[in-house]
Every structure is written in C-alpha cells, then in structure tokens.
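ok so I'm stuck.
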Amino acid sequence: FYILSTNPKIQEKLCQEIDQVLNGKVPNHDDLTPHKMPYLTGVLYETLRLYPPVPEDPKLATKDDVLPDGRKILAGSSMAYFPYGMGRNPEAYPEPLVVKPERWIPFSQPSDFDFPVFQAGHRICLGMKMAILETKILASLLLQKYTFTLLEGEQEKISPSLMITMSLSNSKQLDSHNLWLIPHRR
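replied:
not stuck anymore, here's the structure
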C-alpha cells in the first residue's frame, strides 16, 4: 500500500475500478482477472517491478556452464541477478521511477526471464499465482472500505532495505521496517 499511499490519484482510480466491478461484494477469482480489473493488475505489476519480493538473487555454479551469450562460468563461481535494478532499467521501462499502471494495460504476461520477480525457469516460485491472487483479493477487500495515506513526514524517511526479501525501512540505520499507514474510512 506504499505506492497507493504516495500516489493518491492512482489510489483513487483503483478504488473506482474496484467499486465498479465489485459493487461492495467479496471478490472471486473471475472478478480479479486482468480483463475485468486491468488497473488492479497494472498497479500490482508496477509494485512488483519497483519492489520485487527478492531484490537480488545470488547463485553459485555447481559445475562449469556456458551462458546463452557464450560466456563461460566455472564451477564455484558466484553470480547474481538483480530484479530490483532490472525493474528500473530505462531501456525496458521508460521513466522507470514513475509509477505507471497503464504500462501493463492491456495486460500481457511478461516473460519470467525479462520480469524475474518470482524467479524463472526451473526455479520459478511455486506460489506465484497464489501470491498474485491473494494480493488482489486483499487489496480489493481493503480498498472497498478504506483509502490510505502515510503518516506526515514518513515518506521522506522511507528507503528500500535490500535484504533477502524486499522491505521498506523508515530509518537511516535501516533498523526499522514499519510503514506508518493511516487508514481512512471511505
């Protein structure tokens, strides 16, 4: 809800879509498709692009290998890919720091290798589809009843904390991971 609380126009547009599609009811799987709720899908994928669940992913080669571009990797070599940086690549995402749910509308599932927020290939997250569905359910239920803002002065303190899993920190020492949201009854 960080992106929504810091982008009130996006939050307002998302609430309008949720109200129009759900009309106060509890969502089901069919209600939450990219076709029925394109803006919700766009907001979710923008959030994943900017704040992937695993921002950096190191790997260790257990045997000699060759990358698709021909570079050789020796057994015991460490490598990493960086979904956090990939989601901010201006060649892939013009104006990469601007939250634009519209860049995902109409929705086309990106390649797991171009958008590896849930890994890719044999290592893809088994819970990816469930996580996306649960996120859409939670967001649509909460946003039918509330909108959210950050506590005054909080936004200036927030920075990403690139731990094993993505987290936001609200202290210079990176020792506090509280996101002080204020719910407002709709």
